[in-house]
Amino acid sequence: NTNTGQQDSLLLAYPMFNSAGGRINTGGLATNLNGTFNFNSESEIHTAGVVMKSVVWVLPEAGWRTFFLGGYRFFSVAEDLTINSTISPVGGLFVPGSQIDVVDAFSVGNQFHGGDLGLNTELATGPFTIGILTKVALGNNHQSVRINGSTTTVSGGATAQFAGGLYSQPTNIGEQERDRFTVIPEAGVNLGLQLTRDVKLTVGYNFLYINRVVRAAEQIDPNINPTQFDGGILVGQASPAPLFRENDFFLHGLNTGIEWKW
After folding, report:
1. Phi and psi of 219, rounded to 5°?
2. What residues are paired with 208 via a beta bridge?
3. What gap in Å lies between CA 89 and CA 100, rounded to an integer?
4. Chain centroid offset of residue 110 CA
5. Which of 72, 108, 140, 252 is the most exposed place for a label (fewest CB within 10 A)?
6. pLDDT digits over 156-200, tens only?
């Protein structure tokens, strides 16, 4: 709470709650607060690329081949985070059926486009092969952060809606975009079993790192000015603020496949 400089809370469920002020103002009369809380987070990762493969080093007697890789790389990370709470006060000054719904929604997007360079080394021993991949993509990451929220109150059959929930307020609601130069190194190891001259089974591990990614949860500012609640006019510090924080992103993966050459 930036007005008091102290930690504060929004009570969702509490028996015989009595308050003469704050978010729930019962006029000093006891109220039973019945509440629910839902937190939902979703992440989507997509990647695609077109690569040219060219032999740069061959040792036939050792079954060794090294290829140069060059091409285009696309990579995206999108996240949505929604916090929804409902308060149903019973008693006090509240008429039956009163309800307060609070929603905070944070969405981020990262879309990378760039050039891809690397080496792929293969070593064959009988029907078995081992491949080592090292690549790096350099390019632009278009970042976007969207913050939205609302508070809906129902009392005596009348419904009112206000901009802002708890962590989303008029001071940070909106959308921001920017472009950042980004580096994506990637490494992988693949084992193969040559079944026939043209068909090979593969299994492997990949590691990928991105140095600049915006994540949904990191856009939440825990500093809140409650004067904006329920359509109030801002008095004091403009918080929560739009943060636009970025961080590192690691991705580990296992892969299996069938390779067919003709």
Report:
1. -95, 0
2. 186, 251
3. 8
4. 9
5. 252
6. 889 999 999 999 999 999 999 999 999 999 999 999 999 998 999
Give the tens place of pLDDT for each residue, 30-45: 688 899 999 999 999 9
Q: Which residue has the tokens 């920017």?
A: 178
Burial of 110-143, coded b for 16+ CB within 10 Å and e otherwise, reads bbbebebbbebebeeeeeebebebebbbebebeb
Question: Residue 27: pLDDT above 80?
Answer: no
Instruction: Give the residue carrying structure tokens 């790389």.
Output: 73
CB 182 within 8 A of CB 112: yes
For 93, half-sphere exposure in the C-beta direction (CA atoms, 13 angstrom radius) is 10
**Against a cut of 0.90, is the pTM above it?**
no
| Cβ contact 116:51 at 8 Å | yes
Nearest to 237 by CA among 245, 248, 228, 246: 228
CA–CA distance, 220 with 166 (Å, rounded to integer): 10
